From TrEMBL:
GO terms for biological process: defense response to other organism. Keywords: Membrane, Transmembrane, Transmembrane helix. It comes from Fraxinus pennsylvanica. This is Late embryogenesis abundant protein LEA-2 subgroup domain-containing protein. The chain crosses the membrane at residues 6-29. The lineage of its organism: Eukaryota, Viridiplantae, Streptophyta, Embryophyta, Tracheophyta.
Amino acid sequence: MAESGSGGCVNCCCSFIFTLGLTALFLWLSLRTSKPTCSVQKFLVPSLNKTDNSTTTRNNHTIFFDIKLDNRMKDKGVDYDTINLTFFYGQNYSFPIANYTVPGFYQGHDKHTSRKAVVETNGVPWEAAFEAVSNVSTVAFRVRLATRVKFKILVFYTKRHNLIVKGDIQVNDSGEKMNKKGIKLKSNAPHQLSHRLRLEFLVVILTVLMIFLL
Ligand SMILES: *[C@@H]1O[C@H](CO)[C@@H](O)[C@H](O)[C@H]1NC(C)=O
Ligand SMILES: *[C@@H]1O[C@H](CO)[C@@H](O)[C@H](O)[C@H]1NC(C)=O
Ligand SMILES: *[C@@H]1O[C@H](CO)[C@@H](O)[C@H](O)[C@H]1NC(C)=O
Ligand SMILES: *[C@@H]1O[C@H](CO)[C@@H](O)[C@H](O)[C@H]1NC(C)=O
Ligand SMILES: *[C@@H]1O[C@H](CO)[C@@H](O)[C@H](O)[C@H]1NC(C)=O
Ligand SMILES: *[C@@H]1O[C@H](CO)[C@@H](O)[C@H](O)[C@H]1NC(C)=O
Ligand SMILES: *[C@@H]1O[C@H](CO)[C@@H](O)[C@H](O)[C@H]1NC(C)=O
Ligand SMILES: *[C@@H]1O[C@H](CO)[C@@H](O)[C@H](O)[C@H]1NC(C)=O
């Protein structure tokens, strides 16, 4: 009698743990987030356009960009903090030539949006750049995008996470981004966030299990 009683209890306990496991898995799946994708769709440097040798264009020291922000999650929104864009000339990140800030905004489920602007540059060695595109036909610019994002799950917001991505843009002697396709900006630490979330969640599950089992 005592045996069948304890067997029932073990069964009950097993199914309880199983249900708990399933719930945890479901919760984990529905709380999983991924950062938005950022890509440079257009990038124009009019003064490097070799076929347009008018002095107004040659002295136009602006760049035009079009950056796409893409939230690919079908059931979560993204709230962007102020977006800081920094542009660099050359092969490394030690030569900033322009800044631009995009005010923060909210982006709904599975939405994408573009931010475009003309920015004035400072300190580009224009003659050398022009010579370089003329000689070897491309010159490199770099873009760094830095912001903080929080995710909206149903009516709740997560805490903010850093979103810092960058990329290289080759410009040819038409003054245009060489690659017709968008250039995806990449992070140095691609899986940090999802990794962290997974860890946090494991801790929660273990704590819940402990509380119920002890
Ligand atoms: C470069 O200049 C030529 C001549 O003015 C113009 O037709 C062309 O559209 C310009 N290219 C770009 C990318 O603006
Ligand atoms: C522009 O450059 C082309 C060839 O590079 C030259 O034939 C033309 O005369 C130049 N035009 C001006 C206004 O300098
Ligand atoms: C300078 O180039 C930008 C594109 O980067 C263009 O919008 C602007 O009209 C140009 N300005 C002049 C004076 O040509
Ligand atoms: C970065 O570029 C500048 C100018 O092109 C150069 O002087 C410097 O040595 C470069 N730094 C690195 C770390 O490559
Ligand atoms: C970009 O912004 C920083 C700080 O706000 C400033 O120190 C720097 O001079 C700016 N660079 C350019 C090229 O405007
Ligand atoms: C471009 O070529 C010219 C001669 O054709 C040369 O004097 C100059 O140093 C070269 N510039 C670069 C940046 O390669
Ligand atoms: C963006 O720039 C502002 C002003 O320089 C700064 O306060 C903010 O922390 C920057 N944001 C990020 C994510 O770097
Ligand atoms: C420069 O790149 C643009 C965009 O890919 C392309 O349309 C253009 O033909 C290129 N110009 C040259 C001279 O290669």
